[in-house]
Automatic annotation (TrEMBL):
It comes from the Eukaryota. Keywords: Lyase. PANTHER family: D-GLUTAMATE CYCLASE, MITOCHONDRIAL. It comes from Vitrella brassicaformis (strain CCMP3155). InterPro entries: D-Glu_cyclase, Putative_hydro-lyase, UPF0317. Transmembrane segments: none annotated. It holds the Pfam family D-Glu_cyclase. Belongs to the D-glutamate cyclase family. Gene3D superfamilies: PSTPO5379-like, PSTPO5379-like domain. GO terms for molecular function: lyase activity. This is DUF1445 domain-containing protein.
């Protein structure tokens, strides 16, 4: 059947009736019950993972506009009703207050705490934004023999602040954040083909680095690829190049630089994503679901 759900791109999801979604629900229950608080990279393979931003209603319209203006980094998958913690389009019955492994709480643009449950700070004026995540295409890459190294290492992906500004909306701007996965140049055509078919998960790469073992990326303003701003270091092998994707941590930078800053905001902790009920092929475009 066809749902009414769209990403920032003009493609509806094709949500199928024959999919067993129990693995995603089990992953969320494990978080809800306090049994898991780690990175979700490589977890619940095949299910769409998502970034999370929760804001007071008064900031919701300007943030939604920010997402639309910067849809490569912030592809909207779902927006909750005011005061509701249920992302009913992508995970009916889920609870955004408990179903992620780790959250960040921001007060006036400053990171105040990382917690595993936000029930005690939930407000009736909150609006939740569920945004696409590049973890969603990692299983598709692995199926074609291109498993990202962070998955192989069972680590978080490397994420970096850049010097490239986002398009401003109200108080939200900041600079783009990118994730990095290394590949040999010969693999790039397939990597681009696969990831570009997931526009709701940041799509294809936005930039590729050089093969000269340079430990930085001057074009993006990254000083040391071995020292990511978020996530874990992922080594770049001999003959490989760093490949960069827009990243859903971008809104967190927009929150910390917002003027005026929201009095409170809640996000996922980088790499600790919300696992939706959607399977990756339901979000894939340009080819029929597998």
């Amino acid at each position: 059947m066809m749902s009414g759900l769209h990403t920032a791109y003009p493609f509806p999801f094709k949500k199928r009736d024959d999919v067993d979604r129990s693995a995603a629900q089990a992953m969320r229950n494990e978080c809800r019950n306090g049994g898991f608080s780690g990175s979700t990279s490589g977890r619940a393979p095949g299910f769409v993972q998502a970034n999370l931003v929760i804001l007071p209603k008064e900031f919701a319209l300007e943030f939604a506009t920010f997402c639309l203006r910067n849809s490569r980094a912030c592809p909207l998958l779902d927006v909750t009703e005011v005061g509701s913690p249920e992302p009913s389009m992508v995970a009916p019955g889920a609870d955004l207050r408990t179903d992620l492994p780790k959250y960040r709480i921001w007060i006036n643009g400053k990171l105040e705490a990382e917690v595993t449950d936000i029930t005690d700070v939930w407000r009736n004026d909150f609006v939740g934004f569920v945004l696409g995540c590049s973890f969603s295409f990692e299983a598709a890459l692995a199926r074609e023999g291109l498993e990202p190294r962070n998955v192989t290492m069972k680590s978080n992906v490397s994420m970096y602040r850049t010097t490239h500004p986002n398009i401003k909306s109200g108080p939200f701007e900041g600079n783009l954040v990118v994730s990095m996965r290394p590949y040999p140049p010969s693999s790039l055509p397939d990597v681009i083909r696969i990831t570009s078919s997931f526009p709701g998960a940041h799509g294809g790469p936005i930039y590729k680095g050089k093969t000269d073992a340079t430990p930085h990326c001057s074009f993006l303003g990254i000083g040391n690829l071995g020292l990511p701003d978020f996530g874990d270091p992922v080594p770049i092998g001999e003959g490989e190049i760093p490949v960069f994707w827009a990243c859903g941590v971008t809104p967190q930078v927009a929150i910390e630089t917002a003027a005026p800053a929201p009095p409170i905001a809640i996000t996922h902790a980088p790499g600790h994503m919300f696992v939706t009920d959607l399977v990756d092929d339901e979000m894939r475009v340009g080819q029929p679901p597998g």
